[in-house]
Specification:
Elements lengths: L22 H4 L26 E7 L6 H4 L4 E9 L6 E3 L6 H10 L3 E7 L7 H4 L2 H17 L4 E5 L8 H30 L5 E7 L3 E3 L5 E3 L12 E5 L12 H5 L4 H8 L6 E6 L1 E3 L6 E3 H7 L9 E5 L5 E5 L3 H13 L4 E5 L13 H9 L1
Parallel strand pairs: 1-2, 1-15, 2-4, 4-5, 5-6, 6-9, 9-10, 10-15
Antiparallel strand pairs: 2-3, 7-8, 11-12, 13-14
Length: about 375
């Protein structure tokens, strides 16, 4: 997920690393855009119990403590990625301990799911729009889930930002053209391997569905063709939508023009919407962010109602760093319960203070959701 912190370290799948053996894959024709529109008659998932999901995303091999596990229902291990256009897969750095983390999760009755992609990763039509490559990717994902005894898969295929706007539009159209193919085929493959409903299948989407290409042009990326019917839930990345005190506000999620209303009107049922919370503050793009735990450390007597601080990070100018304090977290959790949503996810667990602290956001979420 960019999820706010890994800000767009662009990785091209068609780089100079393409080997001679990959040339045959490059010559495969890209399929035309999908015209399939899914309905409930095409696939129905098992219902997710309201307020049952508390999912923390993990990166760089972070292993939760037993006390943190006791406050979680799921962990999202980030990230699994395609290593080339053929669909071979590889984990991002730091996950030599992946099996240990999964084992610890299971000992604490927590589901361990693998997250695919992330905000810094480019997914191309050569990978997803070529049937041979896409099906090889799906085969390798299922094999990875079997090998590591995972409980589910989370698709974090996000739009990509590039300086070349023409190239950017071409890359991002891969979502519009091929997303539902990948989602449908992977769901079928997961069910075939493990049995229908035995593994969760979810996806993360941005706070909103538009991205600006210029001051006059914006494009919707996720097509309105029913892809959500194949998913158990859709997690809204309710952060990085604005800066400073406007970052991840209550209104931006639950207000009349907020993310929940947008995606529900788009077609995603409320009973499949999981909302997202940042465990970090944002003042600007790039490096202008801070972990929540760093804010608490710098402000020993931080008010529970505080949602921003003024801070000068390194050699950057002093700016307003906006985050979610305890009061806002409680308000968001209460609204989630009122709407009977499946639950809450957050990016990322490493940003929280120790679980026994009165400032712990995970502790607040668990206490108020349950």
């Amino acid at each position: 997920m960019s999820r706010g912190i890994s800000m767009l370290m662009l990785i091209g799948l068609q780089s100079c690393n393409t080997s001679k053996k990959d040339i045959s894959y490059l010559s495969e024709s890209i399929e035309p855009p999908s015209t399939f529109i899914a309905t409930k008659s095409d696939y129905q998932t098992n219902p997710v119990e309201p307020n049952s999901i508390i999912m923390g995303y993990l990166i760089d091999g972070y292993k939760p403590t037993d006390e943190q596990f006791k406050n979680l229902s799921h962990i999202g291990i980030s990230f699994l990625r395609a290593d080339n256009i053929k669909g071979d897969v590889v984990m991002t750095d730091g996950w030599d301990n992946i099996d240990d983390v999964i084992s610890s999760a299971h000992k604490n009755d927590v589901k361990a799911i693998i997250s695919f992609g992330g905000g810094s990763y480019i997914v191309t039509s050569e990978l997803m729009g070529v049937k041979k490559n896409r099906q090889n990717l799906i085969k390798n994902i299922v094999r990875f889930m079997v090998t590591h005894k995972l409980d589910g898969f989370d698709c974090d295929w996000e739009p990509s930002w590039l300086n070349d706007k023409k190239e950017m539009e071409s890359v991002n159209n891969a979502i519009n053209h091929h997303y539902i193919k990948f989602i449908k085929e992977l769901r079928i493959a997961i069910d075939a391997e493990f049995g229908k409903g035995e593994k969760s299948f979810s996806a993360a989407v941005m706070n909103a569905n538009n991205i600006w290409y210029s001051s006059k042009k914006q494009i919707s990326h996720f097509p309105q063709n029913g892809w959500w019917h194949f998913l158990d839930w859709v997690a809204l990345m309710n952060y990085d939508n604005d800066l400073g005190a406007k970052h991840s506000t209550f209104e931006s999620v639950y207000g009349p023009n907020g993310s929940v209303k947008y995606w529900n009107s788009f077609g995603v049922p409320l009973e499949k919407i999981v909302t997202g919370i940042p465990f970090y503050a944002r003042a600007g793009w790039g490096e202008e962010w801070l972990f929540y735990k760093d804010i608490v450390k710098m402000n020993t007597y931080l008010s529970f109602e505080t949602d921003f601080i003024m801070h000068k990070k390194n050699s950057l100018n002093e700016k307003e760093y906006g985050f979610n304090g305890k009061s806002t977290i409680v308000k968001k959790v209460q609204e989630n319960k009122k709407l009977n949503l499946p639950g809450i996810m957050f990016w990322q667990l490493a940003g929280d203070v120790e679980i026994n602290s009165e400032y712990s956001l995970l502790r607040v979420i668990n206490k108020n959701l349950n």
